[in-house]
Design brief:
- This protein has a two-stranded antiparallel sheet with strand order 1-2.
- Helix 4 crosses helix 10, helix 6 packs parallel to helix 10 and helix 8 runs antiparallel to helix 10.
- By secondary structure, it is mainly α.
- It contains 10 helices and 2 strands.
- The model has no long low-confidence stretch (mean pLDDT 94).
Length: 223
C-alpha cells in the first residue's frame, strides 16, 4: 500500500522531531521509514497508519534511537573523510608530485640557516600554517549550508581542528625541544617535513571540500 503525499510529509516531520538536523539523513531516514511502512501495510492492511509507523520505527532503530543512528552515521562519515583525504595526501608522496613535496622540504630546511634559533624559525613555519589553512576554513564556512539546508557530509569537512590545533601543537612541541633542535639538525629537517604535511592537508582539504560540495548539489539537485 503506497503512502500519500500527506502521510510521507507526516513521516518526514516525525523523523525531524528527533532533532535529526542533517538534510541527507532526514531524506534517508524518511525514505527508509516510508518503504518499510509500505511493506508492513502490504502484509497487514488492517493496521492503522500510526501502528504501521511505530512498527517501521521499531524495525529501523531496534533498541537504539534515531539519534544514535545519526551518531553512527557521523562516525562513518568522519572515518570515510579521513580515509579519502589521506589517500589524496599520499598522491603527493608518489611520482611525480613527490618532487614538489621534496622541494618544499628542501626550501624550508635551507631557510632555517638564516635563523640563529631553530625553534624560533620553526615557530614561524608552523604559524604560517594558520594563514595557509584559513582559505579552507573560509570556504567551508561559506558553503556549509546549501539553500538553507545543512549536511552531515559537509559538516564532516570542518577543518577547524587541524587549522588551529596542528600549528599550535607544532609550536608547543618545538618549544619543548628547544635545546635538542640546537644539537640535532635532523630534528629541524623532521619538523620541516611535518610542516609540509600541514600544507598538504590544507591543499587536499580545499579540493575535497569543493568536490564534495559539487556532489551534494548534484545529488540533491540544489543550486
Amino acid at each position: 500500500m503506497k503512502l500519500t503525499i500527506e502521510q510521507i510529509e507526516y513521516v518526514s516531520n516525525y523523523v525531524k522531531s528527533f532533532d535529526i538536523k542533517w538534510y541527507e539523513l532526514q531524506v534517508e531516514f524518511t525514505d527508509h521509514m516510508v518503504n518499510s511502512m509500505e511493506e508492513i501495510w502490504e502484509k497487514d492492511p488492517e493496521l492503522t497508519f500510526h501502528q504501521v509507523k511505530q512498527n517501521a520505527a521499531n524495525k529501523f532503530v531496534g533498541d537504539s534511537s534515531f539519534k544514535s543512528v545519526e551518531e553512527e552515521r557521523k562516525r562513518i562519515s568522519q572515518k570515510l573523510y579521513r580515509k579519502v583525504q589521506w589517500k589524496m595526501i599520499t598522491e603527493y608522496l608518489k611520482f611525480p608530485k613527490i618532487f614538489g613535496s621534496i622541494l618544499l622540504v628542501y626550501l624550508a630546511y635551507t631557510f632555517s640557516a638564516y635563523f640563529v634559533s631553530p625553534q624560533k624559525y620553526l615557530a614561524v613555519l608552523f604559524s604560517s600554517l594558520l594563514l595557509i589553512g584559513l582559505p579552507s576554513f573560509y570556504y567551508w564556512w561559506k558553503s556549509k549550508e546549501i539553500d538553507g539546508k545543512i549536511f552531515l557530509t559537509l559538516e564532516t569537512l570542518n577543518p577547524s581542528p587541524w587549522v588551529f590545533s596542528f600549528p599550535s601543537l607544532g609550536m608547543a612541541t618545538t618549544r619543548q625541544l628547544k635545546q635538542e633542535l640546537l644539537q640535532y639538525q635532523w630534528l629541524v629537517l623532521f619538523f620541516c617535513c611535518i610542516w609540509v604535511l600541514g600544507i598538504l592537508i590544507s591543499i587536499t582539504a580545499i579540493h575535497l571540500q569543493k568536490k564534495t560540495n559539487e556532489n551534494v548539489k548534484k545529488q540533491y539537485q540544489l543550486t
